[in-house]
Design goal:
Helix content is 68%, strand content 1%. The protein is mainly α and 375 residues long. It folds into two domains: 30-205, Up-down Bundle (A middle domain of Talin 1); 208-374. It has a two-stranded antiparallel sheet with strand order 1-2. The longest helix has 65 residues, at 6-70.
Length: 375
């Protein structure tokens, strides 16, 4: 037996384990620190300020709704419509933040499930036991229900006013409209209060990548939002591009069906908010983001060697350009040239793959939601 070999073997083993320990001690804390700075920027510069801005627009809608309920005139109706549009557009900047308090209160479910359920709304108006907390009432409240109540109950404004001044049912109808707006105000106040309380520090402190960590939760919410609520909700289902639609267009399922000329504006605002979040663009400020994180870890497309963040941004730009070519009325777009809608859906699907597969794999994040929407 040659004992002279042992010092060499021991030296190599010590060197090997020394290298592993050094990597664990240096890289992981640095990555945690980077994620903490990213989470801090998300919370303090993107999420909380976006909710504050949305709250201002929602408060304007609350005030105009109160004025209309107390005095249902044509002027007050138009003011309510204008503030509803502004608040609906503003909502597109916060809908993607379905984490923490918004997830806790399931804000999206109470704010923006469409198409709205007209028969359910009419039943609610006539009911003496209204309970808007029930999941069965998701599609009977929020922005889509208000869309119907201020734009869709009749074709002419004079008839809409008669709907609310009717001697028999007018008071109940105004009361229901008021209850919807009040509920939206209460829910948003709960979300904002939580974010301005312990929720912010809790969010920032969960710096890991495990299930339940803030980065993993935000990435899951972010990708889910784009996949289901932008790609499918705004384009796939109305155009009939999803497998569940079997190729049959459903133009009546666009967002803001009773105010069709803002449907593209809502979609473009949502896509831009999504893009800004990826790049860490917040009201003129540039901060830590998914883009900067992917760059920091050297994530690249395996086929081209291009930075994954560049690849994702190029795809988001392709989608932006396609959106710019659509009619502001997506209902009419589907009727006249549905292929353009389907093309947007297809390009959004490419973005979903980059985000859901390539980005999450590079970041070692597990997708925890199920792909059960049939598309």
């Amino acid at each position: 037996m040659n004992y002279g070999k042992y010092p060499i073997i021991l030296f190599l083993l010590a060197l090997l384990f020394g290298c592993v320990d050094s990597t664990d001690d240096q890289d992981i804390p640095e990555e945690n620190s980077d994620r903490k700075e990213m989470l801090k920027f998300w919370a303090e510069e993107m999420i909380i300020p976006s909710y504050a801005a949305f709250d201002q627009d929602l408060q304007n809608m609350v005030i105009s709704a109160d004025q209309f309920v107390n005095s249902p005139t044509e002027s007050n109706l138009q003011t309510l419509r204008n503030t509803w549009v502004q608040a609906y557009v503003s909502w597109q900047h916060v809908e993607l933040f379905e984490v923490g308090p918004a997830e806790k209160y399931t804000l999206r479910n109470f704010y923006n499930i469409y198409p709205t359920n007209v028969s359910g709304i009419e039943s609610n108006i006539a009911s003496s036991t209204l309970n808007l907390n029930l999941p069965s009432t998701y599609d009977q409240q929020g922005f889509p229900a208000l869309d119907y109540l201020i734009n869709g109950v009749a074709e002419e404004d004079s008839k809409i006013l008669e709907f609310y001044t009717d001697s028999d049912k007018g008071e109940d109808r105004r009361a229901y409209l008021n209850s919807l707006v009040t509920r939206m105000e209460v829910l948003l106040n709960q979300v904002i209060t939580d974010w301005n309380g312990p929720a912010k520090e809790e969010f920032i402190s969960k710096t890991g990548l495990d299930i339940g960590s803030s980065t993993a939760s935000m990435v899951n919410a972010y990708v889910l939002y784009y996949e289901r609520h932008v790609r499918s909700g705004k384009f796939g289902i109305p155009s009939g591009a999803t497998l569940a639609s079997s190729g049959t267009p459903n133009p009546e399922k666009i967002e803001a069906f009773y105010k069709q000329d803002i449907s593209l504006q809502l979609a473009k605002t949502a896509h831009q908010a999504f893009t800004d979040f990826f790049n860490g663009n917040a009201n003129g400020k540039q901060g830590r983001s998914l883009k900067s994180y992917l760059v920091a870890i050297g994530a690249k497309d395996p086929n081209t060697g291009k930075l994954l963040s560049e690849y994702i941004n190029e795809q988001l730009t392709v989608i932006s350009n396609l959106l710019n070519g659509l009619s502001e009325n997506l209902y009419q777009q589907i009727i006249t040239d549905n292929d353009a809608m389907i093309q947007v859906y297809q390009e959004m699907q490419k973005a979903v793959r980059l985000l859901k597969v390539d980005m999450t794999s590079a970041m070692s994040i597990t997708i925890t939601y199920s792909d059960n929407d049939g598309d």
